[in-house]
Amino acid sequence: MLDIIYQDEYLVAVNKPAGWLVHRSWLDRHETVFVMQTLRDQIGQHVFPVHRLDRPTSGVLLMALSSDVARLLSQSFEQHKTEKIYHAIVRGYVESELLIDSPLMEEQDKIADKFATQAPKLQECITHCVPLATVEKEVAIGRYSTSRFSLLELRPETGRKHQLRRHMSHIRHPIIGDTAHGDLKQNRGVVTNFQSRRLMLHASHLNLIHPITEQPLRLTAQWDIPWQHLINQFGWRGIRPALEQHGEDLTCHF
């Protein structure tokens, strides 16, 4: 069962689990679990995607309940009329706000874009980065005797493929658990010392104007248990209470 965080007669939003594909893909023919099909079966009606989240990313995923509403929502995303807010845990200390204005080369898939006729283009990419907390742990990962981490709030102005992951790697603060753009030695160290195996990137909030009622809509998805487990180990509980899970059993299951 998916965690439905909002639903009306026009829209439905879920807290997408990390590791789930949004929809079927011939690139992942062996997969059997998808958000769209699971949600369709869960609510008993067709759903229409309007944006995407990478497979290892968790958080707010919005879908329309008709093709007409999907078209309106897609226009909002294309015209940058929505606000997306992510949280990430990264390597090292980020101690001041950053505006990362660094163009990125269009990222093509080695298989899906194998026969693309156009060369990749350099695309404008802008990300706002706000540090929320830092920690230094007495754990040696790499050449230093301690390891430093930061909790960040990230607000992308543009929506390029892997933008946040690539931008954080660009400023040498890769996201923990990123196997494509991150620090593999750091990732292994975090698994060994903190039992965290997932990409530490979460789509926490999506703010938009409802396409039908024209009222402001703020969607929020809480961190999952592996996220909360690492937050607790780093002493960051209470920094973003609206995103935290509460209760006696926050045992991390992998």
Features:
5 helices, Pseudouridine synthase, alpha+beta, 254 residues, ten-stranded mixed β-sheet, globular
How would you describe what is shown here?
The chain is α+β, with helices and mostly antiparallel strands and 254 residues long. The protein has a single domain (4-107, 121-239), classed as Pseudouridine synthase (2-Layer Sandwich). The protein has five helices and twelve strands. Strands 1, 2, 3, 4, 5, 6, 9, 10, 11 and 12 form a ten-stranded mixed beta sheet that branches. A hairpin with an 8-residue loop joins strand 3 (48-49) and strand 4 (58-64). The longest helix has 12 residues, at 67-78. The two termini are 18 Å apart. Residues 110-116 have low confidence and may be disordered.
CATH topology heading: Pseudouridine synthase
| CATH H-level superfamily title | Pseudouridine synthase
| Total discrete domains | 1
- State the end-to-end distance: 18 Å
Strand element count: 12
Nearest-angstrom radius of gyration? 19 Å
- Stretches where pLDDT is under 50 for at least 5 consecutive residues are 110-116
The SSE order reads EEHEEHEEEEEEHHEEH
Mean pLDDT: 91
Instruction: Report the portion of residues in β strands.
Output: 25-35%
Tally of individual helices: 5
Molecular shape: globular
Q: What composes the largest sheet?
A: 10 strands, mixed
Main CATH class: Alpha Beta
Catalytic activity: uridine(65) in tRNA = pseudouridine(65) in tRNA
Pfam family, one: PseudoU_synth_2
Domain Pseudouridine synthase RsuA/RluA-like: 11-170
GO biological process, one term: tRNA processing
